[in-house]
Amino acid sequence: MKATAPRIQEITCIGCPNGCQVAVTLRGNDILSIEGNLCPTGENYAKAECTNPQRMLTTLMTPTFDGKPIAVRTSGPVPKDKIELCLKKIHAFHPKAPVAIGDVLIENLADLGVDVIATRHSD
């Protein structure tokens, strides 16, 4: 069986203000080395980005009562490959106004263990 050649994935770390350019050497899905990070956050971020990339999700949700959009965010990051599914579920949900900042509008979004939280008041 022929071994897969290593490849390098370049990542800009967003874990701290340094913004390190991190080079991750991979063979298939295995991490061989991580270089360029100035702190442990960069190493952890690079590992996660290569094996299970996640993002915080922010969007607008429209309530049924007054039609004004409500700014919302997830309580934690969601897997990058689930963002489209999460957006569909958020946009299909229409809470009734009023909504206060911090209200949990959807619990356990798409069974991912994160909630959808209002980040703005709605009358």
Give a structural overview:
This protein is α+β, with helices and mostly antiparallel strands and 123 residues long. The chain folds into 2 domains: 7-51; 58-118, CPE0013-like fold (Roll), CATH 3.10.530.10. Helix content is 18%, strand content 31%. The chain contains 2 helices and 9 strands, in the order E-E-E-H-E-E-E-E-H-E-E. The protein has a 4-stranded antiparallel β-sheet with strand order 5-6-9-8, with helices on one face. The protein is elongated and about 60 Å long. The termini are far apart.
Map the helices and strands.
Layout: E1 7-12, E2 21-27, E3 30-35, H1 40-51, E4 54-55, E5 58-61, E6 70-74, E7 78-79, H2 83-92, E8 104-106, E9 116-118
Antiparallel strand pairs: 1-2, 2-3, 4-7, 5-6, 6-9, 8-9
CATH topology of the largest domain: CPE0013-like fold
Radius of gyration of CA atoms, rounded to a whole number: 19 Å
- CATH class of the largest domain equals Alpha Beta
The overall number of domains is 2
Parts with pLDDT < 50 across at least 5 consecutive residues:
none
